[in-house]
Amino acid sequence: MISSTTTWKDGSARQNRRRAFTLVELLVVVAIIGILSALLLPALGWSKLKAQGIQCMNNHRQLTMAWRMYVDDNEDQMPFASRNPSLPQLNRYAWVTGDLDFDPNNRSNWDVTQDIMKSPLWPFCGNSATLWKCPADRSTVTVNGTALARVRSMSMNMWMGGFAGYDGGLSGGDFRTLGGNPWRVYLKMSELQDPGPSQIFLFLDMREDSIDWGNFATDMRGYPDQPQKISFYDLPGSYHGRAGGLSFADGHSEIKRWQDDRTMPRLIEGGLIPDVFPSPNNKDILWFQAHATRRK
Prior knowledge:
With 296 residues, the protein is α+β, with helices and mostly antiparallel strands. 20% of the residues lie in helices and 16% in strands.
């Protein structure tokens, strides 16, 4: 309680009393605010995650549309998923060149003019470099004391174009055979009849500590009936909780929830994780295998 004295014109004095908060009342108010914050913050976090997911799906659809327009303009020929050091004359047909890491001297990490704007897909992207990255990917590289956002989180299914048309010897393949052997490297849109464009993933978001070249390689060994032999070559992103964004050759996109903790090992911030390792009976790998390619 706060008291004050007022002097009137006749010289008399009267005491005014104002009621103030007691300590107990203040503590109750603080407690209520804390409870409301605890209830509202998760909801706000979920709303932000959902908004980022919507934007990520839009980016995937737009980039897939750019890919499809390129194919239509080039007589059904697909761009390559990756460059091939042995065939440098063909690297200009790779959807993106350059390797990502956390080296500040590597302009591919932070400069869109280095690789992205030289991509054969760039003319179909509406001059928008944001399509190449999930908005939930906050990875940066420090250049001269300034943290710069990395330019890309998306990679292409390696079996969609391969290393300039070859499988690079992955999954027991013969790196000398154009179009892959025994697993197919798709080179034309018309080849996507098995398992069909809606069942073959094209782009996906990769983890910031796994992304390097322009491709995501699914190890096909063990498919379809030896799940005890399956392994990872690369790791997908988990930017949407325990889920990652993908797009498919028919143009649709989706957020895929991962089921196995081994698909989401602890993140190595500012570095690259050893991402080639066996993971027997991993349902996520089995899903990738079913949506990556088929035997020739």
